[in-house]
Write a structure and sequence with these properties.
heterodimer; A: about 270 residues; mainly alpha; about 75% helix; globular; B: about 325 residues; alpha/beta; Rossmann fold; 11 helices; about 35% helix; about 30% strand; elongated
Chain lengths: ~270, ~325
């Protein structure tokens, strides 16, 4: 048996190999191109449409809020594309028969698969923010990129991690790629926002523990404007998420679903 | 542990749920350089055993060891010198053979130079050199199979675990894989090969382990199994008239007949327990002596299923 340090280094190498393999997969399956095109295309709509047919909002913050209220949609699409088949694909396509019989701990493979889904989704979100920031500079000048913009970016990255964890978890549990991808997509797009709305508007309870409710923080950080709240595209709600509670909820979702996903995937066998 | 023992299972049991026991207390040892066939009909537990040996599933109880290392506890160490082909694996369709083999080469910590050399050698060996940079999604099933075989031998392992390796191959492909496995014998590679085709196994293996209903029922050399097989020959007999129960009884009473099975109203299958051709002639003579009008008499080689039945019968019926 090898010394622990060497053993861990070897595991890390295996994880890195899986990450690069996953990235190659996303690239080959055109997922990168689609997501990156959306990351540039979506904010461009908010630039081109007002430029031709209307006028830009009065302040950079308003422009940013409007633009970034759609970053959630991009997170959901990219997360579903990159994480939806991460684990389940190996079982459904039976490629796991080749992969899992190699001298690697299955845990290292699944951690690599998670990172391989998370990294491109984070990259897509970053490109979205970069495009938006370039638009703000172009319209309002360099001084208009505020600290709130960076704060929103960080919140979006944390939210992305939690969304990817949720879809990765579905991928570990379910038997079909399409089910896991669609369930991930619709959970974040419809199911959780509906639950959140029902709790807010019918039960009159703040759904602080619902992941999609915390997403409102991405745009709520911009001061001087009423909170957009809730679901994708921004549904005005009775409540708005508390910053620290929201961030904590996102982090808890990220960690719990990641560990649970890896645990279940590792226990799952090619039967 | 015996230094020469490369693959060992100890009281291996795998249950699926409460009712299904896929592998039932299987213990065997395979020594260095041996080519051992693992034979059984579909559903006998061959693939389950192989999946345990390659850490795809864990046993319910018992142990599977390679080079003395428990595969399910220390897969990294146990599997580093193992090449495996299990079932009909999918082969990442969006990649090329070059990319797939490069990835697995890195997993096995092969150097860049070795990866490059082995890609050329292996693709040549499995007749895929011209497809090195083509996407696998355009491959036929046979080509995918050959690539999967190529992947299993890519890192030059000293242990090969192959599950139905010729499945899905055309006759030429089967012949090539057979030659390939034979060539490993000369290189001192230990091969554990599962199949449901006795004929296939007998052509490449030194010895055979028989599995039936999850139980190991026999382990023997290929030569001895050939001899046993000769002893168990089936004869199909067709009569002019419909057979009555008393006619069947008459046939059953003929010495050297073990079993008589009625196929239809005027056709039976006889399982005789003596292998010499004289007994085949003797049975025909005695059937005719019983005033039964024979219109066809066809001795046939017993298939694997019959062989199992005969083995099980001799052992008091594990079934």
């Amino acid at each position: 048996m090898k010394p622990i340090r060497e053993d861990i280094l070897e595991d890390m190498k295996n994880t890195c190999l899986t990450v690069s393999f996953e990235l190659k997969k996303h690239f080959r399956m055109k997922r990168m191109v689609i997501s990156f095109a959306l990351a540039i295309g979506l904010p461009l709509i908010f630039y081109i449409v007002p430029r031709i047919w209307a006028s830009f909002p009065d302040t950079a913050e308003e422009f940013a809020r409007l633009n970034l209220s759609f970053v959630n949609l991009l997170i959901i699409i990219s997360g579903s594309l990159f994480a939806g088949d991460a684990v389940v694909g190996e079982y459904e396509e039976k490629t796991g028969l080749l992969l899992f019989s190699t001298p690697q701990r299955h845990t290292t493979i699944f951690i690599g698969k998670y990172i391989g889904a998370l990294v491109p989704t984070l990259a897509v979100v970053s490109i979205y923010y970069l495009t938006t920031s370039l638009e703000i500079i172009g319209i309002y000048g360099t001084g208009e990129i505020t600290s709130e913009f960076f704060k929103s970016f960080l919140i979006a990255l944390i939210y992305t991690s939690s969304a990817v964890s949720l879809i990765f978890f579905f991928s570990s549990v379910l038997k079909r790629k399409i089910t896991s991808t669609l369930l991930g997509f619709f959970s974040l797009m419809m199911i959780l926002p509906i639950v959140s709305s029902v709790l807010q508007f019918i039960v009159d309870v703040e759904p602080w523990y619902i992941l999609t409710y915390t997403e409102g923080l991405i745009t709520d950080v911009f001061v001087g404007a009423p909170p957009i709240g809730g679901g994708p595209g921004g549904q005005p709600g009775l409540f708005s998420p508390d910053f620290y509670v929201g961030i904590s909820v996102m982090i808890i979702y990220t960690l719990v679903l990641f560990f649970l996903g890896v645990f279940i995937a590792t226990r799952r066998r090619m039967e | 542990m015996d230094d020469d023992c490369i693959i060992r299972t100890e009281n291996l049991v795998k249950k699926f749920g409460e009712d299904v026991t896929a592998v039932d207390n299987v213990s065997f040892e395979i020594e260095r350089g041996e080519v051992v066939g693992y034979l059984g009909p579909n559903g006998a537990g061959k693939t389950t055993t192989i999946k345990i040996l390659t850490n795809l599933i864990e046993p319910t109880s018992g142990r599977a060891c390679i080079n003395g290392i428990d595969v399910n506890r220390y897969p990294k160490e146990a599997l580093k010198d193992v090449g495996s082909l299990i079932g009909v694996p999918g082969v990442y369709g969006y990649l090329t053979p070059d990319e797939v083999l490069t990835y697995f080469g890195k997993v096995y910590r092969m150097s860049k130079e070795k990866i490059e050399r082995r890609i050329e050698e292996v693709l040549e060996l499995v007749n895929l050199s011209d497809w090195r940079h083509s996407k696998i999604e355009s491959f036929s099933t046979g080509m995918e199979r050959r690539l999967a075989i190529g992947k299993s031998i890519f890192h030059e392992p000293s242990i090969l675990i192959l599950d139905e390796p010729v499945l899905g191959l055309d006759p030429e492909g089967i012949r090539e894989i057979r030659e390939l496995i034979k060539s490993f014998q000369k290189k001192d590679v230990t091969v554990f090969l599962s199949s449901h085709l006795l004929d296939e196994v007998s052509k490449v293996c030194d010895s055979v382990i028989f599995l039936y209903d999850g139980k190991m029922i026999e382990r023997d050399s290929v030569e001895r199994i050939d001899q046993i097989m000769k002893q168990y020959r089936l004869i199909e007999v067709e009569f002019l008239d419909t057979l009555s129960e008393s006619d069947l009884q008459k046939v059953r009473k003929i010495p050297v007949i073990d079993e008589v099975t009625k196929i239809n109203q005027n056709k039976i299958r006889i399982l005789k327990n003596e292998g010499d051709p004289a007994s085949t002639a003797d049975i025909l003579r005695k059937v005719i002596d019983e005033d039964l009008d024979v219109i066809s008499y066809s001795p046939m080689k017993s298939d694997l299923e019959d062989f199992y039945v005969s083995l099980l019968g001799k052992r008091g019926g594990a079934r």
